[in-house]
Amino acid sequence: MSFFLHKSNFLLRTIYPEFWWKIDEPAEPTIYLTFDDGPIPDVTEFVLEQLDKYAAQATFFCIGDNVRKHRDILYQVLEGGHMVGNHTYNHLNGWKTDDAVYLENIQKCQEQLGVETDLFRPPYGRIKKTQVAQVMENYSVIMWDVLTGDFDQSQPADVCLRKTIQYTEPGSIVVFHDSLKAWPTMRYVLPRMLAHFADRGFSFRAVPQPVYAGY
């Protein structure tokens, strides 16, 4: 079984206070849904269908190479009123990647997106301090309050749902994955999670960002 923290802890937030972990608002209870690793056919399209049922907005942190291969799916994301963020071109682990290569990979992803975005999420949540300083010249680094763990194929889907509901609260940035690996669990958890919180008066929004250009 993979080891991961469903809830980002105080230590992580203390080490990187400049990152976005949660969005505190005094208004109506809101959850900020995010989806990593797409866009891909079927899986991303399923996510869009589920979001549409609840008039929910989300942020999709896209892998540049997937955008290159499935640009029509990216257009569906944008046409649905959702936001996009940069997730590198090749899903690079910053801890294992030379800084120059990492930054070039981010730029390559941005070129594929064709949409101005100031949101970046490091794959695996792993990024060096030296990389942070340079990335934050152009992007806000968006982490998360709740990691669903939908990618963990050893975790039963009902457990994933229960823990996601347990740890999510107003202002939470929640991570799902629109990937083939996460697909079996995500397609069970996402619609039930949306229904649970919608019934309790929550709304679902994209992480705030300016979008300057069309596609």
Automatic annotation (TrEMBL):
Q: Electron transport: is it a keyword of this entry?
A: no
Report any one BP term from Gene Ontology.
Answer: carbohydrate metabolic process
Q: What SUPFAM superfamilies would the database entry show? A: Glycoside hydrolase/deacetylase
Chain ranges of the NodB homology domain: 29-205
This entry carries the following GO cellular component terms, namely: membrane
Recorded hits in InterPro entries, A to Z, give: Glyco_hydro/deAcase_b/a-brl, NODB_dom, Polysacc_deacetylase_ArnD
- Which key words tag this protein in UniProt? Hydrolase, Metal-binding
Q: Cross-referenced CDD domains, in alphabetical order?
A: CE4_NodB_like_6s_7s
Which protein is depicted?
Polysaccharide deacetylase family protein
User: Which organism is this protein's natural source?
Assistant: Spirosoma sordidisoli
